[in-house]
Automatic annotation (TrEMBL):
It comes from the Bacteria. This is Lipo-like protein. Keywords: Plasmid. Pfam families: Peptidase_C92.
Amino acid sequence: MGHGILVSLSKCIVKVLAKPSHQHRPNLPDSKAKLISSLRVADVLLVEGDSRISNYIKYLTQSNWSHAALYIGIKKINGVDMHALVEADIEEGVRLISLDHYLNHNLRICRPIALTDQECLQVVQFALERVGIEYDLKNIIDLARYLFPVSLIAPFISKSRTLFLGSGEPTKAICSTLIAQAFQSIKYPILPIIHSHTEHYCLGCVNEIFKVRHYSLFVPRDFDLSPYFQIIKWESDLNLDYRSIKWHEES
């Protein structure tokens, strides 16, 4: 009985969090064609969402980006070939969705550097195999606790380097953890922990060792900040003639 009430309450909370709020959306000419021509398989698409949960994530991470999805190329969705993304949705869990869903949102493309076609397919396949798993609400709650500046309240509290968040269940994920796991499956770096130490046999020589950050600690902005992802400004107008712009002159 108690479990049933908890499940019902969770569903009600999810519906409230998923409700969109007003947001100004860009209206760019030929935006779909530009976006499609700019995308490659295994690109990470960052989204400035407009739901309540999106505003919550943007506030916590101090970033415009509240959501991340993985571009997987053309796939059948409901029997129709579409440019598709894999994402973790708060209501439906990990799912396939058409690129059209985000056309009127503020977007950014983050492209992994130096991946081969085969490695891109491995990343995509990892994500596809997880379609259908649930959204990890506990991870969102734990991220809030992790990202909140506890040092302002209790400076003596430190965050453990071995900390990981969320339910820890392989059948649950959020958007950024799903994509982080996909890239970590081929040992591709996102924002690794880097330890430096001096070699005893070589004065001035420093050796760097990469340590994997737990996938549950990633948020959408990390793909934007990562030096291992190229930022693609797909909406840029390369034919811009700024001299022809008519500016309003103040009297």
